[in-house]
Design brief:
By secondary structure, this protein is of the alpha+beta class. It has nine helices and four strands. It has a four-stranded mixed sheet with strand order 2-1-3-4, sandwiched between helices. The structure holds glutathione.
Length: 212
């Protein structure tokens, strides 16, 4: 069975969502990379960068990088419908935007969540944080523009794909869903459609409890 290291509301959610839709069983090890403790040391032993998600395969192979895990899961479950198949016209756009989420948007949190690791001084840290949020919103605007016409109800094509799931997870993060919606209304509508999938309702509610 797979072992997934992750935590509440963080990047492991996309991998959990994919495993759920693909009926891929996994054991979940809760670990917050930023909280000291024995779990963090277990994570360090498999991923010296101390990041989640980290995935351990049944043969002991360790995978990091959410997009690598998703592509590996797709290969393991051919015909899942969560991506256009190789050779299909929408495949290049799928690959582009699939990698865009962790390559363009996710790193803004690697910097913005820990500004003290990058610059010294409260003011400089606040400015850096602000700059990462501005860049995040620019990335969402570019996604919105770049995916226009690729789908109507979904980011790509006529069915939910991993793109909608990435959009759902990342649009829960800072600067918050409403600011992200203003930048990328269609992408957020697709994300919310994905969240409404009955197979995933429990997962989203557990990871992103509704705010009162
Ligand atoms: N490129 C990685 C990024 C993973 C990542 O940044 N995860 C966050 C949690 S959502 C983390 O572990 N942050 C701690 C750190 O970067 O030190 C991926 O796509 O999986």
């Amino acid at each position: 069975m797979l072992t997934l290291y992750g935590c509440h509301g963080c990047g492991s959610v996309i991998v959990e969502a994919a495993c759920t839709l693909l009926a891929e069983p996994y054991r979940f090890v809760v670990v917050e990379p930023w909280t000291e403790g024995p779990e963090r040391e277990r994570l360090r032993a498999v991923n010296p960068l101390l990041q989640v998600p980290t995935l351990e395969l049944p043969d002991g192979t360790v995978m990091t990088e959410s997009v690598a895990m998703l592509l590996w899961l797709l290969e393991r479950h051919p015909g899942s419908g969560l991506a256009p198949d190789p050779g299909e016209p929408l495949r290049p756009a799928f690959l582009r935007w699939l990698v865009y989420f962790p390559a363009a948007i996710y790193p803004m949190y690697t910097v913005g969540d820990f500004p003290d690791q990058w610059v010294e001084g409260d003011e400089a840290q606040a400015r850096l944080k602000q700059a990462t949020m501005a860049r995040t919103l620019r990335c969402w605007r570019a996604l919105e523009q770049g995916t226009q016409g690729l789908g109507t109800d979904w980011l790509l094509g006529d069915r939910m794909s991993l793109l909608d799931l990435y959009a759902a997870m990342l649009s829960h993060w800072e600067p918050g869903r409403e600011q992200i919606r203003a930048a990328a209304p269609r992408a957020v509508a697709c994300a919310e459609r994905a969240e409404a999938d009955p197979r995933l309702l429990d997962l989203w509610t557990r990871n992103f409890p509704p705010k009162n």
